[in-house]
Write a structure and sequence with these properties.
about 180 residues, 10 helices, Lambda_DNA-bd_dom_sf, HTH cro/C1-type domain-containing protein, Cro/C1-type_HTH, DNA binding
């Protein structure tokens, strides 16, 4: 087995990186996948860590991460061609590339999403600024605020710490008339 050294500056054990790359819903997925694709030119090595479907679903965010590295911008064209070929193959097999856009939210989710937006706005931050401070992508923050991404307790703790806002998790029950 060849030595895995593409992740040298992530300050994370390889086992943890593999766990993150196995879950495309992890907020760190795109950043770490972008680092992987920026540094590894071998599709076999990449697709041993990321499923082709996850790669295609999250390609836009991954591509943005690759472009952040000045030294590896030329790899974007290679991975874009790989994305186009793979997405076509997967669609021909009937596999769904895009996540469904319909999001069903209950009252608690709606109230919690509104509280997240209020925290961000009270701290006078844009989604992009909040994402940078929290170590996420702007797309992830947008996903949180639209209900496409799940809000975790870790996210709420970090949000409260960074925005210096208190987050009240009580939800008033709507009265039925």
């Amino acid at each position: 087995m060849t030595r895995q050294n593409w992740y040298w500056d992530l300050n994370m054990p390889f086992k943890k990186i593999k766990q993150i790359l196995a879950r495309e819903d992890d907020p760190r997925f795109s950043r770490i996948a972008g680092t992987l694709l920026a540094r590894v030119p071998d599709p076999k090595q990449v697709f041993a860590l990321i499923t082709p479907t996850a790669f295609c679903r999250r390609y836009q965010a991954i591509e943005n991460e690759i472009k952040l590295d000045e030294w590896t911008k030329e790899r974007v064209a290679f991975w874009k061609a790989t994305y186009l070929r793979l997405s076509k193959e997967l669609q021909e097999k009937g596999e769904r590339i895009r996540k469904p856009e319909v999001v069903e939210l209950d009252d608690f989710d709606r109230v919690l999403i509104e509280k997240v937006k209020q925290c961000r706005k009270a701290a006078a931050m844009s989604q992009k600024e909040l994402a940078q401070f929290m170590g996420y992508s702007q797309q992830f923050i947008s996903g949180i605020e639209t209900g496409r991404e799940k809000i975790t307790m870790d996210f709420l703790k970090k949000l409260a710490q960074i925005t210096e806002q208190r987050i009240d998790l009580t939800v008033e029950k709507a009265s039925k008339s």
